[in-house]
Structures are given as C-alpha cells and as structure tokens.
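User: Let's play a game. I give you a shape written as tokens, and you guess the letters that built it. Ready? Here's round one.
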C-alpha cells in the first residue's frame, strides 16, 4: 500500500468489517480501549463504531496529552507570563485549554505575551531573536514530542542560549496504562496500542500487559483500515485465548523503538517520583523532569510558580471519560455548558480529546466510511 486512499478503500473496509463480524463471538461483549487520542479522533471521524457489531465496544483511553494535564499545571504555566513577564511559547493545542483564571488565549487577550509555536525549536528561535527577554517553552506530550524537546535543550546548551528554558510537562504512557489496568472500575479486554508514541518507544515496552495482565495489545495506525485490521488481530488473539503484542503499524513503528530519540531523552530527562494526571491522580514515575546537567534551562528551577493543586469543576466528568468509564455524551455538561466554543474541560479542546471528537463527528458522520 502506497497511498492514503488505499487505507480508506470501501471494499477493503467492508472485507475487514465482515471479518470482524465473523470472528466476534455473539455471546461475548468485547471492551477494547484505544489508548491514543489520534485513534479516538479517527474512530469518530470515520464512524468506525457503526461498522462494528454491537457487542464490540470501543472505550477511549488517556492518550491525549493536553487532556491529562491537570489544571494546576496550566495555571503554573500561565503564571510565568503573568508574574514573571516571560514570553510563553506553547503548541496550538494548549492555547484554549482552561486554567482556573482562563485559557492561554484569554490571558493573551489580557496582555500576557503568549505565542503559539509549531515546535520547541521555534521557541528557541524566539529566544535568540529576543535576547533581552526570557522565553519559556510550555512542553507537553508523551514520548512522541519529548525527543524534540530534548534535542532543543541540547541545542540551547550547545548554542549558549541563556534566556531560554522549558516548563516540562512531558508524561510517559506505560505507567498510565498500568494505572488503568490496576484501576478497580476498569474492565478492558484488549488494547489498540498507540501509534505515535510507539514510533519512539517501540513495541517491546508493552509486553508486560500480555505477560502480567493477560491482555492483548496491537499497535495500530490511524487510517480506518488500520484500526479495523487491528481489531481483527485482537479478536483472533481473544478467540485463540492468547495475549501478545502485535504490530499492525509496522510500516512506521520499529519493534525496538527509535534508539537515537530514546538516547536523547535519556540524556536530558529523568523520571519524576510523582506526577498528577487529570482523572488518574498521582502516578509514580509517570512523567519526565529535566536533569541537573540542564538545570539552567529548567523553568521550574529558574522561576517560582504557585504549584497549587486545582480540582476540575465539580460537575465536569473529565476523569471518568479519560479512564473510559463514561462516554463523552454521558458527562452532564456535554454539549450544554461544555462545547468546543466554550470548553470546560481539556477533552473538549484538543483535536485528540474524546469530547471534541464526539462533538464534532459523532452526530454529523460527514466523513463516515461507506460500508
Ligand atoms: S464534556 Fe466537558 S466537562 Fe464533560 S468530560 Fe468532556 S470536557 Fe470534561
């Protein structure tokens, strides 16, 4: 396969859907978690749930990096621009994420110098262009984006850029999956494994899920045919009664991961003892912080921040949606108080957020695959 159209070919989609129906045991209910927000987006965009038999339920996992960031960390980032007068550089996904006193976009409207960038290197460039200002990059994301932050910190040190630092909020996927597996209210039979993260960490890192928890995981691509093929692979394992890691996305994901990227991360970052995740609480060794060697570029050491823990609004059920316990539309605020125009939780902001994906696609089904 060479072109994206082939991954959306109705004939192939129909064949995959038929195979799923053939494999699915009608007396069994299957709960499959797609870990990655990119998959959630694809599932809603292409209405893939509609081509599955009703006893296959897709539940959404915690793989949207913006969504799992607790509100207190958003407030900490905003305090840098407000209290310290820095240029705060952030990805577009972050710009509308609500903090307690408004989103970065709202703070920008009130006069804070907050700029949207496409990469951490753009933020470093801003620092070099503004030598009389402090520039802080608001780093978020899983292992997918952490290597680019690491390489930027390495470049900042090599170039001797002293007015640049990083507010590090990178998280790691494996402890979050483990927390979900250990959660008492979680009943998932198998995982559609993340595609983007796996390009960096590879597939071997998931083997404990099969070995210790007896659950299959299939690393998947993001096109409709990718997701359906992954479900076929999972069903085959479940019907055979086995659990192993398989790689449907082998055209992109190396089994051992991206070793130069992993080396760059290991040079610059170390694990934090604890980090709070929205919806999952504090998870040990689940996030990255900047090593002592790079302390001069660590915003948390260079600037004081409130560091206050902030709970979500009481009626917001972001945590339950993030753990796959509730569907987005089952949140009391969905589509009424909380919409993409007026988001209350981050899941309604990010393109990878389950609530935004459900709001934008689930009812319209404009791009649904014809089966
Ligand atoms: S609808 Fe809004 S408040 Fe409810 S879970 Fe989604 S993002 Fe959170």
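Assistant: Ready! My guess for every position:
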């Amino acid at each position: 396969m060479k072109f994206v159209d082939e991954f959306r070919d109705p004939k192939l989609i129909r064949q995959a859907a038929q195979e799923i129906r053939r494999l699915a045991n009608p007396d069994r209910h299957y709960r499959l978690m797609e870990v990655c927000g990119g998959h959630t987006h694809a599932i809603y965009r292409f209405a893939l749930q509609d081509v599955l038999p009703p006893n296959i339920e897709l539940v959404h996992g915690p793989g949207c990096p913006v969504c799992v960031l607790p509100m207190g960390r958003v407030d900490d980032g905003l305090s840098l621009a407000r209290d310290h007068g820095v240029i705060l550089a952030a990805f577009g996904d972050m710009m509308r994420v609500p903090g307690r006193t408004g989103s970065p976009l709202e703070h920008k409207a009130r006069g804070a110098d907050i700029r949207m960038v496409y990469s951490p290197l753009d933020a470093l460039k801003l620092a070099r262009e503004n030598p009389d200002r402090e520039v802080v990059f608001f780093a978020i994301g899983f292992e997918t984006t952490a290597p680019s932050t690491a390489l930027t910190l390495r470049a900042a040190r090599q170039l001797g850029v002293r007015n640049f630092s990083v507010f590090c909020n990178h998280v790691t996927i494996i402890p979050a999956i483990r927390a979900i597996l250990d959660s008492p209210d979680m009943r998932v039979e198998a995982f559609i494994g993340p595609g983007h993260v796996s390009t960096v960490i590879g597939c071997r890192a998931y083997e404990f899920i099969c070995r210790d928890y007896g659950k299959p995981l299939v690393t998947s691509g993001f096109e409709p045919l990718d997701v359906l093929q992954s479900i076929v692979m999972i069903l085959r394992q479940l019907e055979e009664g086995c659990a192993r890691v398989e790689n449907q996305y082998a055209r992109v994901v190396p089994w051992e991961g991206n070793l130069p990227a992993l080396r760059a991360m290991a040079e610059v970052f170390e694990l934090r003892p604890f980090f709070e995740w929205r919806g999952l609480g504090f998870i040990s060794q689940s996030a990255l912080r900047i090593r002592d060697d790079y302390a001069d570029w660590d915003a948390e050491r260079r600037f004081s921040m409130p560091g206050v823990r902030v709970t979500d609004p009481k009626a917001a059920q972001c945590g339950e949606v993030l753990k796959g316990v509730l569907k987005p539309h089952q949140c009391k605020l969905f589509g009424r108080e909380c919409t993409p125009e007026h988001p209350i939780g981050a899941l309604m902001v990010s393109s990878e957020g389950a609530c935004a994906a459900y709001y934008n696609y689930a009812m319209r089904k404009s791009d649904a695959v014809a089966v």
